[in-house]
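[Automated response] Your request has been received and processed.

Submitted sequence:
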Amino acid sequence: MKIQISIATADPWEARFNPENPFSKETVREFVERHRLPVVNGYIKLFHGTPTRGKWRTNLTELREGSFLATNPTDAAFYAARDRGIKTTSTRVHTVWLLPNELGYCGHYMTRCVVPLNRHISE
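Generated structure:
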């Protein structure tokens, strides 16, 4: 699924977080502040869970466009397990550092583009 994003501002922090919803006026900065997400050197800290067992086991080096994200590790593990019939203890939670223009929304928090998992940001 390809999502078309129109950003009316040059500053990605001031772009609308959910531009597909005409009633949503919240900017990326307001979304990050409302959820009290950590920001370090311009990168937003979020989480993504992947299965460690069974046919869904993955060894990711990057996240695809549209990958689910969570604001905390517990939710990330839950999202990775819920539709696969596995326990949250059979998941691995990745810390994901995103630039503001890489964070999107389409019914859930997600990536707008391919995002590497090997970004190491000193907190």
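Summary generated for your ticket: The chain is about 15% helix and 25% strand. The beta strands are 39-40, 43-51, 62-63, 91-98, 103-105, 109-111, 115-116.
If you did not submit this request, please reply to this message.
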